[in-house]
Amino acid sequence: MRLVSLIACGNRGGWFVIALLFCADVQAQPAFEHRQTLRVLGIPTGTLPTGILNAITDVPGVRVGHVTLQKGHGPLVPGQGPVRTGVTVIIPRDNVWNRKVPAGSFVLNGTGEMTGLAWIEEAGFLEYPIALTNTLNAPLVANGVVSWMLKQYPAIGITDDTLTPVVAECDDSYLNDSQGRHVREHDVVRALDGAHSGVVEQGSVGAGTGMRSYGFKGGIGTSSRVLSAADGAYVVGVLVNANHGRREQLTILGHSMAPHFAKVEAPSQTTEGSIIVIIGTNAPLNNRQLKRVAKRATFGLARTGTIGRHGSGDFILAFSTGNVIPHYPTDLTYSMTILSDIYLNQIFAAVVEATEEAILNALTMATTVIGRDGHRVEAIPIEQLKRVLIP
Length: 391
Description:
Layout: H1 2-9, H2 12-28, E1 63-71, E2 83-91, E3 99-110, H3 117-123, E4 125-126, E5 130-134, H4 138-152, E6 166-170, H5 185-194, E7 212-213, E8 216-217, E9 219-226, E10 235-243, E11 251-252, E12 255-256, E13 274-281, H6 287-303, E14 313-320, E15 325-326, H7 345-365, E16 369-370, E17 376-377, H8 382-389
Parallel strand pairs: 5-6, 13-14
Antiparallel strand pairs: 1-2, 2-5, 3-4, 3-14, 3-15, 7-8, 9-10, 10-13, 11-12, 16-17
Helix pairs in contact: 1-2, 4-5, 6-7
């Protein structure tokens, strides 16, 4: 549009028009925000030490990938934009199809969907990547996971078994053109191809691009804990997509934030929110134990203030890289090392702490986003948060 104005006007008045258009674009987007994790801000949570990265990728072999889609601004044109969405993928380990990981899940409140849980419940393992996205995009994202898996394992559906992808959704329709289903198969493939270990980008990225939490901008958050040598030195990592809670409920380190931040009314045209929690560990746990671990994430979630509202979809999936379940074993039996249940308590503690911190990191790392119809969701004010929490 700006180029057309330049060619059409080609004079001082034309340049004036261009300047106005440029200014309008700038005003439509928030100014740059320097964001930091809760711990970097000097507000640590819990008592257990974090991993080097304080991320789910501290679990050896775990990789995370994002594709973030942001395009357009102004009034909603269903099917066209504005676009504020994306996809996030977690790959438990290399060649997970042939080297499956034990897995278990827990659903706190089921107003939502995480596909593939029936097979995880039945088989007790996870055999492909996990994908997170927005609600209406879930089927297309599942197609992307299938396409990527077929490329990696061409025998699937011919001489090999088929698959039921794990795709977890949250609703981003307050900021995003949800009907447009803008996350395409090639975006999912790109996220999977680009998934890596190391630092995990957090906040308004990937599946978290259009998410809101506790009346602030939410999205992707992650954290990890490392057990002592006496407890096995195991690593527990958590990644969340936070799209839940009400402003007046937000609690940080036991302090209610309601007196410190103005209450905002939840938009009437959107649902009540959801959260997806993915837990990874290298502790040698089986399916039954991982279900117990998944349940404990709800304590970390509760520490941040949510009550698990009627319309919320709160899905938790835990996996362990501590054992390998073979795809088609040649022998009648295979061996697994299992941590004794009486030593699970530190795993539970690690999950609670990492879940709480991952949610708070989603808040402190998220940036203010303006989406469709001018809907604006502010990032939690960092300086104000520090004044409240740091003596």
